[in-house]
Amino acid sequence: MSGAEALGPLGLEPCTGDVPSLKELEQLLSTGRPSCNHVDEVWPNLFLGDLVTAHNRFILWKMGVTHVLNAAHGTAYSHGGQDYYGATIDYYGVPAHDLPSFDISQFFYSAAEFIHKALNTPGAKILVHCAVGVSRSASLVLAYLMINHHLPLIEAIKTVKEHRWISPNRGFLKHLRNLDVQLRQKKGC
Question: Main EC class of this protein (predicted)?
């Protein structure tokens, strides 16, 4: 690695030299076999899933889900909202689009706070979902692990991939990589 690369793409502090490139992140994400499950527990009491699971209130009840974070809120095919789930489930909707040009980072901290509060509620379980459960929702779960559990991006990806195949789009990976840099700088490496 050259000296310029060790400083990062914008000449950032040397401690950010450990931040993986987009290519390295994409290579890591391409490993393992794709999951066929509609939902997987990727962290204790934190489930990552798709619309099939999110739209089945009976399954959610059987799973013990008390909170739902919908990363596809407001899209034509995604039900959701407090009126859909009723009083038994706390709901938070993120109107994200699975496009590389969409700035999902604007929701990193609010989503992480919702997940954190849910998981600190005794007996609570949370489902974070989007359409397929591999890009938008996965990006918000990764941000949560990075913000609240201080995992570097690579470790957050590995942690989730132990339980579910994920594939955030390239734009989301850039935002997660930037979050990784910011959190490392805040920590003083």
Answer: hydrolase
Other C-beta atoms within 10 Å of 27: how many?
11
Write the CATH number for 141: 3.90.190.10
- For the chain, give the mean pLDDT: 88
Catalytic choice (15, 36, 130, 189): 130
Q: How far is Cα 12 from Cα 6, in angstroms, rounded to an integer? A: 9
- Whether residue 12 lies inside any domain: the answer is no
Q: Decide if 130 is catalytic.
A: yes
